[in-house]
Design brief:
With 202 residues, the chain is mainly α. It is built from eleven helices and no strands. It is globular, with a radius of gyration of 17 Å.
């Protein structure tokens, strides 16, 4: 399958799962905003390798076959920090996390948080518009760390291994993963470049 088709298929499967996420306070407004969903998720996948995309597509297909909603589970894992009381009520419903998976998630997080901090130093105005960086800041909104940890925890070990390998390859080439994501995000929102978006955010 061509890369473009793989991403299109992933987005379709994710959007369908997103429509079935059950929120405590009822359906969220973002569940009605398909355009923003596809822009944000598509920008994320633009930074992925072909191997990562293929592996994650298999994760989604396996989840569908076994009755799992990876997006619901992502928000469930996030609640360990954002809504700990509610998390205790649902934790037994979430797939258990192996020691191997937890280790891979934390290794990926260490790289992504460091790179996100570096990107925000380069583009402070864009950085201010993003999520708080660390879980310790979740009181100000769900942080990059909490959100990313929740999402990574839904991936298979195989996908996580490919993810970590890709991040390390990018680092060796002095490429920031978050910069690729933001370049795609601002482009999809009509900006010619990160510099143009940074100036517009002054």
């Amino acid at each position: 399958m061509e890369r473009t088709e793989t991403v299109k298929d992933i987005l379709e499967r994710e959007w369908n799962m997103f429509q079935n996420v059950q929120n405590v306070g009822g359906r969220a407004s973002c569940q009605e905003d398909e355009r923003s969903f596809r822009i944000m998720r598509g920008a994320q996948f633009a930074a992925w390798s072909d191997d990562m995309l293929a592996s994650y597509r298999q994760d989604l297909m396996h989840a569908e076959e076994t009755g799992h909603n990876l997006l619901s589970e992502k928000y469930g894992y996030m609640m360990q920090s954002t809504f700990p009381g509610e998390y205790e009520r649902i934790r037994e419903l979430l797939p258990p996390v192996s020691a191997e998976k937890e280790q891979l998630v934390e290794q990926i997080l260490e790289i992504e948080l460091r790179q996100t901090k570096e990107f925000r130093q380069m583009y402070p105005n864009l950085g201010k518009r993003g999520r708080p960086l660390t879980t310790a800041e979740d009181a100000g909104g769900t942080s990059v760390e909490t959100y990313t940890r929740g999402e990574l925890t839904t991936y298979s070990v195989e996908t996580l291994k490919k993810y970590l390998h890709h991040l390390k390859e990018l680092e060796q080439s002095n490429i920031l993963f978050p910069m690729i994501v933001m370049q795609e995000t601002v482009k999809a929102n009509g900006y010619f470049s990160l510099d143009a978006a940074e100036k517009a955010c002054c």
